[in-house]
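Hi W.,

Here's what went into the run:
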Amino acid sequence: MKKKRLKDYPELKRIIGKGLLIMRLSLILMVVGVLQSAASVYSQNWRMSMNEKSIMVKDVLTKIEHSSEFRFFYEEKKVNVEKKVDVEITNATIDDIMSMLFNSAGIEYKVLDSNFIILKPKGDSPSTSINSSQQKKSITGKVTDPSGATLPGVSVVVKGTTIGVITDMDGKFSLSNVSENATLQFSFIGMKTQEIDVAGKSIIDVVFEEESIGLEEVVAVGYGTQSARKVSGSISQVSSKDINKINTPTLDVALQGRSSGMQVSATSGEPGALSRIRIRGSNSFQGNNEPLIVLDGYPLVSDNAPTGGLDASSSSVLSFINMDDVASIEILKDASATAIYGARGANGVLMITTKKGKATEKPVINFSSEAFASESIDYPEMMSGPQYVEYGNSLPRWDPALPTDTTTTTWIDKVMQRSWGQNYNLSVAGGSVQNRYLVSGSYSDYAGIITGSGFERATLRTNLNNQLTEKITLSTNINYSVTENDRIAGSDGSKNTETGGGIIFNALRNSPLANEDQLMASEIDPVPTNPIYQLTGQTDKENIKLFLANINLDYQIYEDLKLTVQGGTNSTVQNRERYWNKNTSPGYLYNSQAWLLNQQTMDYLAELYASYSKSIDRHSINAVLGYSWQKNILKSHVNQVRNFFSDALEIYGLEYGTLINPYYYRREDRQLQSYFFRANYDYSSKYLISFSGRMDGSSVFTPNNKYSFFPSVSGAWRVNEEEFMKGIRAISEFKLRAGIGETGSQAIQPYQSIPQYGKANYVSGNGEVAGVRPTIMGNPELKWETTAQFNAGLDLKFLAGRIGFTFDYYKKTTRDLLMPFQLPGSAGYRTITMNRGKLGNEGFEITLEGEPVKTPDFTWRTNFNYSRNRSEVLDLGGLPYIAGPIMDSNFLNEPISGQFVGQPFSVFYGYELDGLIQPEDFDASGKPKFATYNGISEKGYWKFKDQNGDKIISATDRVILGDPNPDFMIGFNNDISYKNFTINVFIQGVYGNDLFNATDIYVGTGYKYYNNRASWYENRWTPDNPHNNIKYPAGSVQQYFKPTSATIEDGSYTRLKNVSLRYNVPLKNMKVVKSIELYVTGTNLLTITNYSGLDPEVSLFGKRDDAIGVDFFAYPQSRTFTFGFKMGL
Amino acid sequence: MKSKILKIFTIALLLTGTFSCSDLEETPYSSITTKSFFRFETDAIATINGIYEGLHTSNFQSLISSRLIVFPGKYSLTRNPTLKQISQYKIDYSQADLNTYWSTCYDVINRCNMAIKYIPGIDMTDAKKNEYISEAKWIRAYLYFNLVRLYGEIPLRINPTELEKDAYLPRTSISEIYNNLIIPDLQFAEKNLPLIGKNGRIGRGAAPFLLGKVYLTMSGKPMQDASKLELAKQKIQDVITNKTQYGYALMSRYIDVFPLSADRNQFVASKELNKELIFILQQTQTVEGHGNTFSFSYGPEQSFWSNNATGGQHQVGFMEDLYTLYDATDERRNVNLVYEYVWRNNPTLKRVWGKDAPYNDKTRGMCQNKYIDPDQLCCNGDPDIIIYRLADAYLMLAEIENEIKGPNTTTYDNLDVILSRARAKLVDRTAAWTKETMRNYIFNERIKELNLEFHDIFDLRRLGKVKEAIEFNLGAKAGGTVYDPKFEIYPIPRVEKDVNPLCTQNPGW
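Here's what came out:
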């Protein structure tokens, strides 16, 4: 008997191609849905016309299958489908056709609600097979999916025989004549094949599990989906199940360590803060290195930082997405995967697909609720009051000696809190096959661990899928999010007179002798430094509303040709209100200060593409050709007002401030117009080849350079399909891949090619007069930055997919780097944006996943990924080096990093120390034998190395001090299930990177007028404690404020990122409630590191790439414990 | 089949034709471009205002300029590490302020070049055009004059930089800078500037004044062209003789030159009243970044010099020797230096300089008292920065007379104008003056009068007193600085040297 299994239907590919089903999980549930409901309506409404002479019945059935949801099941021996018939029908129903074909042949048919049509000789009982002479035992049973829904259409076969049935619409089956010692094999697409020994049982109920490493995985690629088997590029997939286990408001944090080749690092522990995402290293010195984010087919513009004013950009675009809505995330890494996004593909692409409704009889309602508590990972211990006094009085001072009777104020305790939060999600999904819906809403409230900071978000999402006609499908995604972020000025580490230093900075450096209510809590600073006043005296509310809607109309013109029209808009409205009253340093200096930003972005997208898919014999072709247009308009309105007579109204009394500057309203446009294509060909699923490319035109370049073409080609060989591999059953997948291609980046602000003049007002007489000065020289030769990438990979799967191994090697070269190129000072301009420079990245990635233990009660699933990237600056357009940003223009006013030819990306740069000044460093006359810095020759101080031997310590003595790029990174995820319990343990680590501990420059090297770390005090150089450890120099009245080797530390860490324990409450005999899950999660539980600062995973300069790994009083990450509850109805 | 082809054809059309409507042209909505600029007289005015703007920001003028010009002086001291390196000559070409000063000057020169190139194309009378251009030319000459004195041979840029390939220029000799640019520019300004500058802007008298200063400088080191003395005399004499016509007059008291009321607690806002000023950079608290930082950065700690808790920062000071250089009656002493002041945190206490006082660190020096703004918040104060004023003309004339003829009545008379206004002892006409002793006497008078007004290093260099200053200065002595001939000129800054392949370095650096 030939079994017809659903899996064998080539039509599935078509369904997938329709874009209805993006991932495996949806696919299964969709099929379940199809089987469960609405079929009768469908079978009544469905019509077909056909006019064929002398056609085999088999072919008629195939045609019906191609153009409908119907699937036929029959035994070839019993139903003669080879018979030729003449068919001439118009608008016939399925009943009409069936009657016509079979009534005379003694075959009866039954249309199940699932649209499965079972054909059998009259009198045969359905779902039963009698094909064995041995009559031993009858077995019945029911097959369900994990949620308890019955699964029709499951193939049940007696192993080693051809005896088998498929389950009926209730998921039931019945087999007779089964040998007592036989094994039943249950298989269903997308589910793990199960084998169950009969062992005398007569009732066998089976609960299917979703396949962990299925063969039929489908991944989202640009403008379509593809079977994972046929992918020849480098794509990783992260499932929603994994990211949902982490408690964080933003999706980017949850992605950390989940995929090889992707580095996600938090820039701050502030809720909702930006993360830095790098896929296979950074490509550009000063451009945007963030991957392109494509949400349900809509490319999001991520770098809309306002063009001026205080640090206005704050929130990640990913912070608007409710994590519960996400179905899967694909990470497109190599050129062959990203070239279809052309000029925006160089940094990789994150394709986020949200959940869709499924056709179900009843609406599926899911509700979850969780509460959590957070606390800071660590606090540094500072000098106590008595230590501070002892130290302060030990060095010469201008002011009276410090009082000795004192208690200690531990400032950090006063500003940090244990915070609470809550999270609610509700989603309702369902619909018929033709009209499916998913509506979800969420509310999250994250209080920060710095008192007063917090992040609130509400989201609403509607996804609709409508089969308008037989050939036209409409998908609609509407997302509305509101975030309200209570920020803490300067908690991102900034220290300048505008913000008076961050909260953590002030909490650490303030005198422990000052009282909590003392405004000037620092001994030296002329401005209020009391962090408690700073918290209560400032407001910084950022409210962002994001609306994203896109519709997608699919027109299946022919069986093999589909046309898709996509249109959408993404608009954000951002309102940021900042106010500092007179008790804060900016308010004190300017007699209160307000800063208001209103910014809106409007983004429009229109796309049209055709997809073609055809299989002839063993050849199959799949192609996409399309056009895309996207326009982005940014308007920002900034108002800074100072000098308020009263703080009573705060920012809502803006008109009472008398000094207004700056005040502006600006608009910036950019436009992108593109043509793209992709063509995949495979022979027998064995040899795969793919071409893709995009012709991109951008408004930011001059007319001659607006367009560029980004091509790629890749191929794969599925060795396991070869004859010589057929015998090796252990290897279920063996694929070799290679690809090469180019992608681009338009990583510059608009208008850089046009000479421009800007405001330069002067104060003449007693008033301000309008002035204009040249601001941008303009470079008429600007063009794209281009990244060429080669990728080679290997995919291996063993034991029917239980163990999977993926290896990828890549090499990238980015040329024509867009950067502000240094001009000689005599040019009159500091820089000009040019295409100069070359940067290389090379690395490899390994992913290992599998199910080492698998028994009915106990399973262990694990995923380990390893990534290694090496960067090298190849050319800087003739310059010897490019300096990074200045951290603190008042004090630490030298760049701490730079780009050097032949060195890794953004290395630390500064003065090398030669130990501490020792008594033997002086000659007989007491003159120092070393070159002094600023004439400082006191013993116990830093001894700077005079690199060029000119006896002067100056900027030319700076050398490369360290490399902030990690040697490698790992992610290690484990799910261990025992009966109804599941434990998830996720470990993430970064190794071999250096950090610049700028915090220690201020509070860890003994500057007398700041408090210092207790460990410095206890170990510092004194005549009684002489040593040569540069970490603990003698105390000083002067600060060094120099980037030196003393503040470079190893930043490697291993972090127990997440541990969760879940309990699925067994729900037998519950009609309404389908599932209840209870869970406890701990996030950031343990960090193993030698780093002496608060948190090794921080960066002062946020997403900037020219100064990574700088820790400067950052908002630390929190340790979070979550208690949650999920219920499905 | 036909219909299939038709459909596919339609799709192809849709894909390629209908949708490709965008030309991707860029419209800068919020910046001015050449297309929309240099069309009206108001554009010319805005361009000239932009030139002044480039010079007057607090960071550039009060900090950077004073670091390079004032603090390698004879009496200057500092505790600021960066300043210490400069004042003790412990720098190399990578010193950051060298580059900031250099590139800021060229930035403004570029603005001047822009004005000089494009204003002639604007539709207005030639007289008007020349008036605006002469303002740009005077400032361009002033900047080149400073650059050539600080760095020696420098790139001579007379056109705006408009393409990257134009950004690299070789250095031009010192005499060409003077003869081909500074002198012709000032001669043009002399003819075309408005007689009296409005709203604190330069008037016609500024041209002969600066031209006189240029000739005097050319007669000194390094050019030592004595033939320029006569020309210098003519020009300065012109300024003094025609001062009323040019709108200049000496203030009756020294203290009135600096815009504070007599009790020094209130800022006098009216800039029009102070007729002694020839060239100033106007400052204000009311516009961000447009104020003078001296009161805060160079003011005494715990004083009321600025409106915050710790008063000033006392980053720099002057040796007590400068204080004692003045006669007891000399009113300039207490205007320039602070001897005692009320302590902010404890108003019953005074901080007094000198023996047994709580505040007498000799290496920090006495604080300046010239730039005070009691309600200054931090870095932005109201007092205008004075670059040139009429008193300098009298001192220069005395010096020129002495150089030409030796000490004589004209020399004494011109000095006495300044000394009598300061209530100081007049020149002892009976003393046995030689040209040499008189030169030193005038040099000291210049320091007493023009202290912290951006003359120090220029005077030291043209008079050949760099070595003398290093050997006298407490800070340089403490740092063990030994005079080196290369100290007569600063190195070309690193960014210029490294980025511009045509640029050479000064000997010794």
